[in-house]
Design a protein that fits this description.
128 residues, heme, binds heme C, elongated
């Protein structure tokens, strides 16, 4: 009898666990959309390996123009930020300070297209 009770307990435990597993498999990271993922990657780069945060703040000019201002100008001129970060287009925001930004292009030029797109998405997210 005790054996039976134990087996039943074990069964209940296993079936419970199984249910949890299938739930996870059915909805893998469903709560986060592709766009949000891109935004997260962009922020990670901006705050992490890109070190962009040290010169660019969301709404206010510090060493570099604010993220918002850059996004506004790029949007208004329909310009491609990815090209700028690959050093394939000229500065359009504050060309007089370009030399300060230019040093960073050695880093951004090594970014993958996906990373550049993510950074761009992050900049544009400040317009909303
Ligand atoms: C050492 C300070 C510094 C760091 C670090 C820095 N920036 Fe800049 N950035 C500037 C300055 C100053 C300008 C204004 C000059 C200019 O417009 O090129 C600028 C301008 C820009 C522009 C506008 C370029 C244009 O068309 O004029 C973009 C886009 C930009 N930065 C993105 C980034 C990203 C992305 C990073 C991180 C990978 C970064 N910056 C890191 C100083 C910096």
């Amino acid at each position: 009898m005790r054996k039976l009770a134990f087996t039943l307990c074990l069964l209940a435990f296993i079936s419970c666990k199984k249910e949890e597993e299938t739930k996870e498999a059915l909805y893998p990271e469903k709560t986060i959309s592709a766009e949000e993922k891109q935004l997260q990657l962009g922020q990670e780069i901006f705050d992490g390996k890109g070190m962009c945060f040290s010169c660019h703040k969301p709404d206010q000019k510090v060493i570099g123009p604010s993220v918002k201002q850059i996004a506004e100008i790029y949007k208004a001129k329909n310009a491609d930020m990815k090209l700028f970060l690959k050093e394939k287009s000229e500065p359009i925001v504050d060309p007089s300070q370009y030399s300060v930004m230019k040093a960073n292009l050695t880093i951004t030029k090594t970014f993958t297209d996906e990373e550049l797109k993510a950074v761009e998405t992050y900049f544009y997210s400040h317009l909303k």
